[in-house]
From TrEMBL:
PANTHER family: CGI-41 METHYLTRANSFERASE (PTHR12496), METHYLTRANSFERASE-LIKE PROTEIN 25-RELATED (PTHR12496:SF9). Residues 117-266 form the Methyltransferase domain. This is Methyltransferase-like protein 25. It comes from Frankliniella fusca. Pfam families: Methyltransf_32 (PF13679).
């Protein structure tokens, strides 16, 4: 096995080592920010510096880093922490040799029903999938978790590729068929199009016999060479696709973009040892042999989009602080087992008072007398919580990097030399923008992809 496995492993090791002392930060429950005194857990130099900053200064530093991390050069302790987070995130030059670069394409408005985000995704991804099909000599695409079928429709109508879209929900399959019919009418290509696009409703697992479904739905008389794709396949569905790619000889290429890292099941998570046959993390032997676990909150953080938050200069939702203040009261009243969900409508409150008034209806408790007291008692934590929030968020791209490198390394460990990560979308337009690409063909990447 070539050196690519070792390069990927070495970079994953660096990310893992950087993350280790900050895992507690990523896994902090913001609800317990005050009651667990999280502020005091920050490294001394960062805490001292953050104490001296105003909230506006903290936001300005955080946003300026997130908007242009490559040119962020503050050499303070906080600046250095942000710079380190960037250096260990996929966008930094450290990962250039693991990333396959390809120009993004011009966007074409395909259907009025598609959002700007979806249009951006489909315009770019269909080009990449067509290139991968070409490189791997695939004669059909299986779009796992195909949803409403936008990707399949554009691959069929614009690239004339045979597509089977598989989704676990029958109403999605039905919707995809209807969407395709509308699109073909617009494209006036219904005859040739409809025979190229098939749909199946199935819950895909690592044990699914995809070839059987392909043979059943597409023509069974030809030897299928499948390109397996999936756009924003949530949780464990990405690792499922990777496992199917490795297992099935007829799947010759892979292009999968995950999302919802919070839904990934972890082998060494809280439920270890669990009865789950297939978990989604870790995949690589490198992390597996270390019994590596990330934690649910860390995976939740990885779902956040620094690109978007900093581009839009988004501030922390104030209800996070009000919830942490409520926790002070709940802990006092109910003791350590005060895990209470107060309902989503409370997050739309407009002030501390409004929040507690909403909460008291929900909890059926008279909190009137407590509100002023709690406000006074917890006020001093407000600015600290915002600063803590910014520092914690900076870890999001590092955790995402760790999850993606684990997937990439697994492919290398299993003998797929031509496996890469490719940035396929603009991170502001579509936050989950990295695809895992794998091709079973021999040859250099520039030969395969004509780069
Ligand atoms: C986030 S949506 C993405 C839909 C589509 N790819 C897109 O980007 O527009 C994920 C889709 O995967 C489907 N799904 C989830 N788990 C699945 C499984 N195990 N097998 C097949 N489909 C699944 C869901 O029903 C849903 O349509």
């Amino acid at each position: 096995m070539g050196g690519r496995k070792f390069v990927t492993q070495e970079k994953l090791r660096q990310v893992k080592e950087f993350l280790e002392p900050f895992k507690y930060l990523a896994n902090a429950h913001m609800t317990s920010f005050i009651t667990d005194n999280y502020w005091e857990t920050l490294p001394e130099d960062i805490k001292t510096e953050a104490t001296a900053l105003t909230v506006d200064d903290m936001y300005a530093t955080f946003w300026s880093w997130g908007r242009d991390p490559a040119n962020f050069n503050q050499s303070t302790a906080i600046g250095e922490f942000f710079r380190d987070c960037w250096a260990l995130s996929l966008g930094s030059e450290l990962f250039d040799d693991l990333l396959l670069s390809h120009d993004t394409c011009n966007e074409t408005l395909q259907t009025k029903r598609m959002s700007v985000k979806k249009n951006h995704e489909i315009s770019n991804l269909k080009e990449k999938v067509a290139i991968i099909c070409n490189a791997s000599k695939s004669n059909c695409v299986v779009d796992v978790g195909g949803g409403k079928g936008y990707l399949g429709t554009s691959l069929v109508l614009e690239k004339q590729i045979h597509v089977l879209s598989v989704d676990s929900k029958s109403h999605n399959t039905k919707g995809a068929v209807e969407m395709f019919e509308r699109a073909t009418k617009q494209a006036e290509a219904s005859r040739s199009g409809s025979s190229l696009y098939k749909h199946a409703t199935a819950f895909v697992t690592p044990e699914t016999n995809l070839l059987e479904i392909v043979n059943d739905k597409l023509c069974s008389k030809i030897d299928h060479k499948i390109c397996l794709t999936g756009l924003h396949v949530c949780g464990d569905l990405t690792s499922t696709c990777i496992k199917l790619f490795l297992k099935c000889h007829e799947i010759v290429s892979l292009c999968t973009i995950g999302c919802c890292y919070n839904l990934i099941t972890e082998t060494y998570g809280l439920n270890f040892p669990s009865d789950e046959k297939h978990t989604g993390f870790p995949l690589s032997n490198f992390l597996f042999k270390d019994c590596y676990a990330l934690g649910r909150n860390a995976r939740m953080i990885a779902c956040q989009s620094i690109d978007r938050i900093c581009h839009e200069r988004k501030e922390m939702n104030p209800s996070l602080f009000w919830r942490a203040a409520l926790q002070v009261h709940l802990l006092r009243q109910l003791g350590p087992n005060c895990e209470i969900s107060v309902g989503r409508h409370c997050s739309k409150a407009t002030s501390f008072l409004d929040y507690f008034q909403k909460v008291q209806q929900y909890l059926d408790q008279d909190l009137e007398e407590k509100i002023q007291e709690l406000d006074f008692e917890t006020r001093g934590n407000h600015d600290r919580m915002i600063k803590f929030y910014c520092l914690r968020l900076a870890l999001a791209p590092v955790i995402e990097t760790l999850i993606l490198l684990d997937r990439l390394l697994y492919l290398h460990e299993e003998g797929i030399e031509n496996a890469y990560i490719m940035k396929v979308f603009d991170g502001v337009k579509s936050p989950r923008c990295y695809a895992i690409i794998g091709v079973k063909m021999e040859g250099t990447i520039s030969q395969l992809f004509q780069l």
